[in-house]
């Protein structure tokens, strides 16, 4: 019967904010025991739909059925009772509470008004054993890894009796190893009869984990497909609504003189330990140097030191032939350098300020944006409209706060602002983190375009695909040092993986050739 | 800002004031007095005669200045709780100067006293700004301590330096006074003085400074996101000290107006001047917006001036103070009122 077939049926859901329809007749049906991916660009309306399902928003029109029965999810408590649990992208955990305390928070088992810790512990252990989570309930949240914290979030929803778990961008903060473990956990959950909706725009993860996939584009549900029947390329095209290329076409680089010279650089991290150790690196005009590495190997500190936001302990930084060691950020920007920071919301933008003011934040003190200390809002807004147009930043107006833009458009705005100054050196950190394929394609094109115009680009990224795609040279960073510089044509993910783990280049190549030889031998037998 | 948030920005202070008036009425009823008579007396006290109206604006004047001072500091991201001390620094310096050179021509002496008073306030606030910028010390603690320091310095100066063991300094000369014949006649003999024009000018100056200049732009950016500001090449340290000094200068001007306009002297105080803390409430009620500050300063002036008249219908001064305080209380918790209004507004959260 139909009723037992679907856990959730959302039919013709429309959610309007004023005249803007965030969801426009969206349909989503999730079968029992399946992993259902919800795919869409930034701002396509995925979060709105899930907020409706979890009771945070009320739909303007449309019906929701759970196990065939029509329901009205007026608030999150009702969603909870209906067995809908959300694993948020940004964890809602209290740092100095233990895992157990966080799990029971808000639904504490009590005994005459006192928290019954024994009972809580027993229930938590029961849940975590059943699904094979390896957790220590007495550990403090502040002492466990991000992957572990996510498990706590999952257990929290299970502890509250969730049958349908919604994962919002679950892999955004995880390491590759943790992603694999998460996928295993998700498979375990559906094996136990739970159903899962996973919000994502990472295509390879959908291929790896999901059974079916509903694609949402500009507020409308486009199609629901069996994941096994489609290729990542087809998914991407469905999502963006046109044919996208994963690999940005580019010609060979024609590097000339060096624009950035780093010599024997030593930089300390916040705790006072050396994060960058005797690092030497050069970026020439007309090339993109990609810095690969696992998060936390000194990449952030390196970029902060180059851009004047962190003190250089020893060594030198030379930009455009001028010594720029320990220059202030303003002096470095004035030295024809642009910087797209790693954390776009913390460093890249002043979120409550308008898009227009944010686009002026590097050049507000110069003509024509200001004159003898007085801002000229006419030309500030004019400048903003030009950049919005040229860089396809999607916003209703240049006068809305930057916080109103989606992540991809915030990043486009920052890139527009930085490239607009026509810098000789472009320093870019995690340029496409959290963005969808359409935006990634666009940003990569822009970076390569800068290279072709004879600019030097230094790009730090944790995404190997990105590094391999856009770099002309790849510098692999491990433990504060560059362990090897390789040509992207002559390397592959395995080799980069070994280098990122600290294996020297010669050894890595030897090891890989041995494995290939062994595999070859294995086939022969 | 869209229309609904604009309405809310207005509705919050209005609801705060109404809630305060209702609580004040309840207190009067409970204590056995008629709230109708009480509030009628308050209105008479504030607007009954031109004299009263003059006094309303007279008492609003320093509050405009300290209110502006608070808003400049909070725009740049910190909480200047030392307005009272900075105002006193301005007050004592202006009085000292006025008493030292009583015979300088008015056209020189008044501007000089104003400038010195503003500088004194700026310096006093700058100390806290410097420590905050250089060592990250909390401006709240430092400015509170500085309130006490200046209080005792000023009391010492009044008693042993400016007078011989007296409780108040002599009156300043006519040449140093902000009062004018014209304003006195206009306002039925009230203490209304040129300070009002100074305050109105500062409203415009500060508005232009914060919204239209590059330095104001930097201060707003630093206040909203110090990390992004530093990234964009602004100096957070410079802006912290500068914003604090401007804030202190405005508070100092508030003190100057009290000294050269309202009282024309300085006396032994048992606490830092009330215009400091009232200025914070004025700024919060006015939403940090110059026009809002002007309006809420006038409201405070009305409450303070009109409150005095309530004792004429036999409501004791203590009850009057409680009524005024309960209105200020609701203004102070306006953020809670905003929260409650959000909760009861029909529309659910926006994107």
TrEMBL record, chain A:
<keyword id="KW-0547">Nucleotide-binding</keyword>
<dbReference type="GO" id="GO:0005524">
    <property type="term" value="F:ATP binding"/>
</dbReference>
<keyword id="KW-1003">Cell membrane</keyword>
<keyword id="KW-0067">ATP-binding</keyword>
<feature type="domain" description="ABC transporter">
    <location>
        <begin position="260"/>
        <end position="504"/>
    </location>
</feature>
<feature type="domain" description="ABC transporter">
    <location>
        <begin position="8"/>
        <end position="243"/>
    </location>
</feature>
<keyword id="KW-1278">Translocase</keyword>
<dbReference type="InterPro" id="IPR003439">
    <property type="entry name" value="ABC_transporter-like_ATP-bd"/>
</dbReference>
<protein>
    <submittedName>
        <fullName>Heme ABC transporter ATP-binding protein</fullName>
    </submittedName>
</protein>
<dbReference type="InterPro" id="IPR003593">
    <property type="entry name" value="AAA+_ATPase"/>
</dbReference>
<keyword id="KW-0677">Repeat</keyword>
<keyword id="KW-0813">Transport</keyword>
<keyword id="KW-0472">Membrane</keyword>
<dbReference type="InterPro" id="IPR027417">
    <property type="entry name" value="P-loop_NTPase"/>
</dbReference>
<dbReference type="Pfam" id="PF00005">
    <property type="entry name" value="ABC_tran"/>
</dbReference>
<dbReference type="GO" id="GO:0016887">
    <property type="term" value="F:ATP hydrolysis activity"/>
</dbReference>
<dbReference type="InterPro" id="IPR050107">
    <property type="entry name" value="ABC_carbohydrate_import_ATPase"/>
</dbReference>
<comment type="similarity">
    <text>Belongs to the ABC transporter superfamily.</text>
</comment>
<dbReference type="InterPro" id="IPR017871">
    <property type="entry name" value="ABC_transporter-like_CS"/>
</dbReference>
<dbReference type="GO" id="GO:0005886">
    <property type="term" value="C:plasma membrane"/>
</dbReference>
């Amino acid at each position: 019967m139909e009723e037992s077939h679907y856990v959730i049926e959302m039919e013709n859901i429309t959610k309007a904010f004023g005249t803007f329809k965030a969801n426009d007749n969206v349909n989503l049906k999730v079968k029992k025991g399946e992993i259902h991916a919800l795919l869409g660009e930034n701002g396509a309306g995925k979060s709105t739909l899930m907020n409706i399902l979890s009771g945070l928003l009320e739909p303007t029109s449309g019906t929701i059925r759970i196990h065939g029965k029509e329901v009205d999810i007026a608030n999150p408590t009702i969603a909870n009772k209906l067995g809908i649990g959300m694993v948020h992208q940004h964890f809602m955990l209290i740092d100095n509470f233990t895992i157990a305390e966080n799990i029971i928070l808000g639904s504490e088992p009590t005994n005459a008004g006192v928290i019954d810790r024994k009972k809580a512990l027993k229930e938590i252990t029961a849940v975590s054993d059943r699904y094979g989570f390896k957790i220590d309930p007495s550990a403090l949240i502040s002492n466990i890894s991000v992957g572990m914290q996510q498990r706590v979030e999952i257990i929290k929803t299970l502890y509250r009796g969730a049958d349908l778990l919604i994962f919002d961008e679950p892999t955004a903060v995880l390491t590759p190893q943790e992603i694999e473990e998460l996928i295993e956990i998700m498979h375990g959950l559906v094996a136990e009869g739970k159903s899962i909706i996973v919000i994502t725009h990472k295509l390879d993860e959908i291929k790896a984990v999901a059974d079916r996939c509903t694609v949402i584009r500009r507020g409308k549900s486009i199609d629901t497909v069996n994941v096994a029947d489609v290729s990542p390329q087809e998914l991407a095209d469905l999502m963006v609504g046109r044919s996208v290329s994963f690999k940005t076409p580019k010609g060979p680089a024609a590097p000339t003189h060096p624009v950035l010279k780093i010599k024997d650089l030593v930089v300390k991290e916040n705790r006072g330990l050396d994060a960058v150790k005797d690092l030497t690196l050069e970026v020439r005009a007309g090339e993109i140097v990609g810095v690969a590495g696992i998060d936390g190997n000194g990449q952030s500190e390196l970029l902060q030191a180059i851009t004047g936001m962190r003190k250089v302990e020893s060594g030198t930084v030379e930009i455009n032939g001028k010594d720029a060691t320990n220059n202030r950020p303003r002096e470095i920007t004035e030295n024809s350098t642009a910087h797209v920071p790693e954390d776009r919301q913390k460093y890249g933008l002043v979120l409550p300020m308008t898009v227009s003011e944010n686009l002026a934040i590097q050049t507000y003190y110069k003509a024509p944006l200001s004159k003898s200390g007085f801002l000229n809002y006419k030309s500030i807004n004019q400048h903003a409209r030009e950049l919005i147009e040229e860089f396809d930043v999607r916003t209703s107006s240049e006068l809305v706060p930057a916080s109103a833009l989606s992540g991809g458009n915030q990043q486009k705005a920052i890139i527009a602002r930085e490239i607009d100054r026509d810098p000789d050196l472009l320093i870019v950190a995690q340029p496409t983190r959290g963005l969808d394929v359409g935006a990634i394609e666009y940003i990569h094109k822009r970076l390569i375009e800068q290279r072709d115009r004879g600019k030097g680009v230094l790009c730090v990224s944790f995404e190997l695909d990105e590094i391999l795609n856009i770099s002309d040279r790849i510098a692999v960073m491990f433990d504060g040092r560059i362990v090897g510089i390789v040509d992207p044509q002559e390397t592959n993910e395995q080799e980069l993986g070994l280098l990122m783990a600290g294996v020297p280049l010669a050894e890595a190549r030897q090891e890989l050739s041995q494995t290939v030889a062994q595999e070859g031998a294995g086939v022969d037998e | 800002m869209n229309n609904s948030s604009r309405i809310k920005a207005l509705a919050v202070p209005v609801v705060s004031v109404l809630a305060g008036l209702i609580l004040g009425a309840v207190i009067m009823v409970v204590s056995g007095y008629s709230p109708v008579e009480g509030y009628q007396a308050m209105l008479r006290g504030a607007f009954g005669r031109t004299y009263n109206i003059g006094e309303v604006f007279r008492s609003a004047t320093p509050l405009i200045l300290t209110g502006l001072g608070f808003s400049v500091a909070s725009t740049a991201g910190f909480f200047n709780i030392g307005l009272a001390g900075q105002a006193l620094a301005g007050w004592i310096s202006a009085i000292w100067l006025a008493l030292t050179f009583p015979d300088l021509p008015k056209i020189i002496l008044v501007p000089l006293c104003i400038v010195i008073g503003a500088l004194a306030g700026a310096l006093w606030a700058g100390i806290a700004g410097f420590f905050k910028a250089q060592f990250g010390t909390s401006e709240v603690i430092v400015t509170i301590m500085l309130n006490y320091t200046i209080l005792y310095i000023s009391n010492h100066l009044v008693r042993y330096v400016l007078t011989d063991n007296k409780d108040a300094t002599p009156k300043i000369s006519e040449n140093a006074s902000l009062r004018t014949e014209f304003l006195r006649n206009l306002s039925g003999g009230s203490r209304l003085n040129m300070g009002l024009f100074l305050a109105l000018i500062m409203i415009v100056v500060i508005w232009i400074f914060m919204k239209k200049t590059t330095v104001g732009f930097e201060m707003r950016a630093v206040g909203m996101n110090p990390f992004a500001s530093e990234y964009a090449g602004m100096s957070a340290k410079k802006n912290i000290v500068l914003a604090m000094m401007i804030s202190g200068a405005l508070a100092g001007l508030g003190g100057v107006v009290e000294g050269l306009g309202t009282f024309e002297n300085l006396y032994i105080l048992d606490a830092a001047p009330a215009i400091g803390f009232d200025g914070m409430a004025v700024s919060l009620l006015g939403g940090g917006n110059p026009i809002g500050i002007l309006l809420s300063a006038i409201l405070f002036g009305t409450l303070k001036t009109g409150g005095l008249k309530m004792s004429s219908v036999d409501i004791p001064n203590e009850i009057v103070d409680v009524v005024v305080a309960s209105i200020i209380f609701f203004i102070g918790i306006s953020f809670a009122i905003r929260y409650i209004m959000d909760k009861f507004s029909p529309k659910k959260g926006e994107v």
